[in-house]
Amino acid sequence: MHDRMTRLLAWTRSRVRWRRDPDADLAEEIRLHLEARIRAFVAQGLTADQARAAAHRQFGPVEPVKEACRDERRRAAWIGTVWQDLRYGIRGLARDRAFTIAAVVTLSLGLALVTSFFTVFNGLLLKPWPLPNPGTLVTTKSAVPAATYRQMRDQTKSVDLVAMTSCGGFIEDDFKGASFRCVSGNYFEVLGVPLIHGRGLRPDEDVVGAPARVTVIGYSLWRERFARSPEAIGRTIRLNQVPFQIVGVAAPGATDRPEKNLPTLWVPLAAYPLVTSDTEFNRGFLTNPEYCCVRLAGRLAHAGSRRAVSAELTTLYERLLPEVKARRPFALTGTRQIEQPWEKSGAAITGVVFAAVVLVLTIACANTANLQWARGARRQQELQIRLSLGANRSRLLRQLLTEGLPLAATAMGASLTAASLLASALARWLGDGRADDLGVDLSPDWRVAVLAASVAAIAVLATTLGPALRGTRRLIGSGRSATPPPPRTRAWLLVVQVGLSAILIVGASLLARNLMRASALDPGFDADGVVSARVLLPGNRSRETRLPALHAAARAALPAQVPPLLAEAGPIWIGRIAVTAGGPPFAAAGRSVSVSYLPLLSVPLRAGRMLQDGGGSAEVVVNETFAARAWPGKSALGAMFRDTRAQGGGVNTAQVESAFDTPRMVVGVVGDMRQGIRPGEPVEPAFFEVGSGTELFIRHNPAVLERVRVAMQAADPTARVGFEPLSATFEVGLLDMRIGVALAWALGLVALAMSCTGVFGLCAIVAEERRREVGIRVALGAGVSAIVRLMLMHAGRPLVAGLVVGFAGALLAAPFLRRYLAVVGPHDPIAFLVAALVLSAAGAMATFVPIRRALRVDPAITLRAE
Amino acid sequence: VKDESTAGVLQGTLDLLILRVLKREPLHGWGIADRIKAHSQQALSIGEGSLYPALYRLERRGWIASSWGQSDNNRRAKFYRLTAAGRKRLDVERACWDRMAAAIAGVLRHA
Description:
The complex is a heterodimer of chains A (866) and B (111). Chain A contains 26 helices and 21 strands. By secondary structure, chain A is of the alpha+beta class. In chain A, α2 runs antiparallel to α4 and α6 runs antiparallel to α15. Chain B is an alpha+beta fold and 111 residues long. The longest helix of chain B has 27 residues. Chain B starts with a helix and ends with a helix.
């Protein structure tokens, strides 16, 4: 026991000794060495002083030896050194508070923008679908008819295929539209969509012709309608007035692919005809291979066999649908992508925003670099002293770079916080106030952290390295002056900053101009005060047969008058148009409407006459775009064309090649309507024919609406009637643009603020450096204008150069924005003028304060301070 | 200037000499310097200071170890001793040196 104690003590002592200050250890060792030598020389008969001198001569210079030993030791324990440098760096930053705050804020801003952007990009495009084991999940761009899907599913072994399609509908008596996902019976089992109660749909419930009336409801529906009660399982819920039994509840955020809106609920694919309206297309959707289409997804039997499975499916697809002739190979893709609309418009938006964000980051870096240069100039003396005291340069460099670490870490922390805040705000906004309603998980993950860390490291390194290299040059004894050279690098950085902000501001100003012009555009019709009626009827299948009676009741309730109070229209469908007199076929939107539809919306007549009752589908009215497209330069009146309709959204080739309808004759040309598309974007060719409508439009006042409701409910007591303003759809288009403009201005102004700080800083430095000169000049009687000229020469020049470079760059870059500039040209003079005004105002403000300070220089005080 | 030229010559060989000296017994810094000087008939007079970085380097590589102790005349001193890894290293360096010396000698004799 005692023995063990002793050993423990000895061990502790040895550890303690080992941990004692290694510098002191080395110093003592060298001292003992010299003492031993001195003793020996004294013993040989030298005097104490001679002995000391001889010992030192024999030993050589002590300090380089110590430094070399330290280097050896540091190589052994460089982590310890880094820690030491880090503490030193943090102390230095704490002392230099103004610099630290400015650098951290600037870097954090730039980095936060990049990180936030990447977080969203990552959430939308890089993260796989929120399903278990996403590595073996595949999806395909080609959709197939439901009948073909069943054949493909049964004939492939290497992949479990599931099918899905969506349809809109109403739950119980709620007028708010919902999204029903009709899915194959193996869907839940194969994809593993997470559930929190009950079970998923089963294959035996998805039998064509005999579907089970069961549904799995989404989390938000469960929360809203059943207050999260487990009792919901087994309850009955009416979907488009057809009763279904709830068998399961999906987990929050559960979906098969990330989309803006989660499915409200899931029903078997075989139940498709039950929940959709009773049309020939819907009746045949599951069985007719000419009716397109369901989307596919699947799980590979073996991970990594994607290409082989693709080939197998392509072969199968071509055999099952020979007439399609594989317009596109049946390629399987991974699940790291978003729906097609996003892919197309998303890529371009992503590019533009990314470019803007990178510009802002560059400006932030330039600003930080400038701050570092200024700080480096201030530390010049300290560094030179350390260098002449024998510090080696690489060591100093390492220390200066290590000092950047706390900066990078703070900026990274701030940017990650900003990114996650933004992500949750965005998720709440997109998910209508509830983050868990969004199918996309936007929260930052390891990819975002890695990106933030690397960008922070690169930014700090890029901004620290130059000043550090320059600062640690050995100036003393090299014949060079110890004062730093004029701030030319800083001026160049400033040119870059001002130039980049000019580009951003011009871009923002162009977008704003576009929005202003677009919202002032005449939509071509008057949607004010027009509502669309929504009618819910029990028993969806009889909807088509019962609607006319209801519409008739509504018509009867309102007196016929000019201008009309009520109109009907059918769904918009896209047809291929062949002009009988020649020309290539093109796509156009067709709509069957009541004769009062165009007058109700005040669509102006340009030529010919409006539709008349009894004209049938042989007489049509086309819009101006249609007329210009089909008969350029000629009158459209009396001209003939043929069309074919494609239903269900997708165009099935077989169907397109089928016979065209009876020829139609143009009796009138009306103005273009921009309903439902973004203002400023080109208008689709459209035509109108007289026919029955499923939608009812009413130009209302409250009394009129109430009268219509009462009349319709009297005609069919089971019907429920609601109204929605028509302008709502139009507003959505403008909202996107407003967000875009706000984003552009936000980025531009942040960039401008940073550049202004840069200009301000440079002016202040010049003012400080020239204080003596200004003092002398003032003493010699120089006027205000001379001083201002002196200041402007230094700070104003890079400002003007930056503006010139920036505007040249903007002229070159603006055409990339053309896609978003439907109403103004990319070189719109007013937008450039506004940008120039904003930039010069900012520049004037940034230079004004330092110049004023310089002018206040009192020569007596300045010269006394020398 | 003189320091640099000798340092250049000694860079590789100093390690070998130190290891060889320590093979006999643990020794302190100035003892090592004395041994090297004595056995080279004063031909290799190194700046004694340059010994220390070499000692630190060898210690970092684990070829020698150090501890504080008492010297012959009862004074404090830091003693360096060869480790097992150092012994192996010495054999390797020695063989290497012998080969090179033989080669140089051969060239000098016959060329």
